[in-house]
Amino acid sequence: MRNKILIVSAFIGSVFFTSCDSTDVAVPAATTDYSWVQEFDSIGTALRQGWVAINNSKPAGVETWGQAYPYYESKKGLNNGNGISAQSYLYSGKDFILATYNCGYDVANISAWLVSPKTMIKNGDKITFYTAAEPGAGRANRLQVRLNPTNSSSNVGSDSSSVGDFRTLLLDINPELKKTGAAIYPETWTKYTVTISGLSAPSERRFAFRYYVTDGGPGGKNSSGIGIDKVSFESAQ
Fold this sequence. Notes:
It contains two helices and 15 strands. It is mostly beta strands.
């Protein structure tokens, strides 16, 4: 029986075979892992890595998604000390990203987007994150997680009601804007996971977090502030 030499070369997920025997042996291509984690300890770093913050609130306020720690440092002694814990979900002093009612001006429809970097996304991939709202504020908060299923643009439209290319709704936290009861926005750090489905094929896409509150802003009845921490994208293998 002759010995057979099989040389395997892998290049970006493809496998090529060269053999001294006329019968080649099929070897499955290795799956590329596109997983990543974003802690938001530095918003500047996150933006350089491809995150995009867009404020479509009408009328727009003086803030958009920002770093939590400087925000709480500036608010010391105000609001009776209320606010999301100025620590991450780990309670270890690490930071997180924050959006508040100041995304809007006076009475506003708040639509503040935090769009992910371009990522190769396919069915079975998972998005996991932690979020919390300001406790005891008595003002409703809401967060949507949306997917751009067709391309890698960051187009979210231009007004507070538009979603642009982010037509697929993956998760909606407190869509009825409840202020009391079990269905309110979580006021302690809470973990959420969504699984991607319904896509035709793997492709480079983006997902987005949308702080979306009607009758919000400083003069409205809703919106206080929410934090997001440790966003994980898990590429299905």
